[in-house]
Amino acid sequence: DQQVKQNSPSLSVQEGRISILNCDYTNSMFDYFLWYKKYPAEGPTFLISISSIKDKNEDGRFTVFLNKSAKHLSLHIVPSQPGDSAVYFCAAEGGGSNYKLTFGKGTLLTVNP
Amino acid sequence: DADVTQTPRNRITKTGKRIMLECSQTKGHDRMYWYRQDPGLGLRLIYYSFDVKDINKGEISDGYSVSRQAQAKFSLSLESAIPNQTALYFCATSDPLGVGYTFGSGTRLTVV
């Protein structure tokens, strides 16, 4: 049973436009959500996170929105840059997971110049 | 030096061989993890350890074993490698709340 779902395997956007990556979860006990970014031949790196007590967290060009009632979160990148091209993983913790992260399958973002 | 170092970076091995992937970290964290990444399947947890005396199976532990030699070292072994264990393997460490995972650069393993 996949508890964290990223239903779009890939996304392609033009440089300067907005990128929106989506993530859904099924476990209502999850209370902390993170996004990781991964370039080829490198390990994932932490990008941004949000606690369930918030509905928005912003860090520069990156904003994460959380809709608890819909069990949905999204990552917005504005403006998108070619260097943002990478695989983005959504992750969640809580719900008796003992602070272990559960990852989605990832979305490959390609930002075209 | 990287916070999490994995060796080797790449390895090709034959079916049936035993192989060990090594991981060391300089973050000083007690928690360490081994993940496997396959195309379209994301990151799946193989084993995790919350301290030197604690070892736990993850969601896909069959065919793997681990050893926590010290706080900083956590190795993953494939006792008898098989082709469907061909994948990218990542080691990670985290603080006690599980926030801020730091990953290594990965080991690309090919079993032929």
Mean pLDDT level of chain B: 93
Mean pLDDT of chain A, as a whole number?
93
Greatest interface and its participating residue counts? A-B, 23 and 25 residues
Number of strands of chain B: 11
Protein traits:
heterodimer; A: 113 residues; mainly beta; 6-stranded mixed sheet; 5-stranded antiparallel sheet; 11 strands; 56% strand; B: 112 residues; 4-stranded antiparallel sheet; 58% strand
Task: Explain this structure.
The complex is a heterodimer of chains A (113) and B (112). Chain A has strands spanning 4-5, 10-14, 19-25, 30-38, 45-51, 56-59, 62-67, 72-77, 86-94, 102-103, 107-112. With 113 residues, chain A is mainly beta. Chain A is globular and about 45 Å long. Chain A starts with a strand and ends with a strand. In chain A, 35% of the residues are buried. The mean pLDDT of chain A is 93. Chain B is an all-beta fold and 112 residues long. Chain B has no helices and 11 strands. In chain B, strands 2, 4, 5, 6, 9, 10 and 11 form a 7-stranded mixed sheet that branches. Chain B is globular, with a radius of gyration of 13 Å. The termini of chain B are far apart. The relative contact order of chain B is 0.33. The mean pLDDT of chain B is 93. The interface between A and B is medium-sized, with 23 and 25 residues.
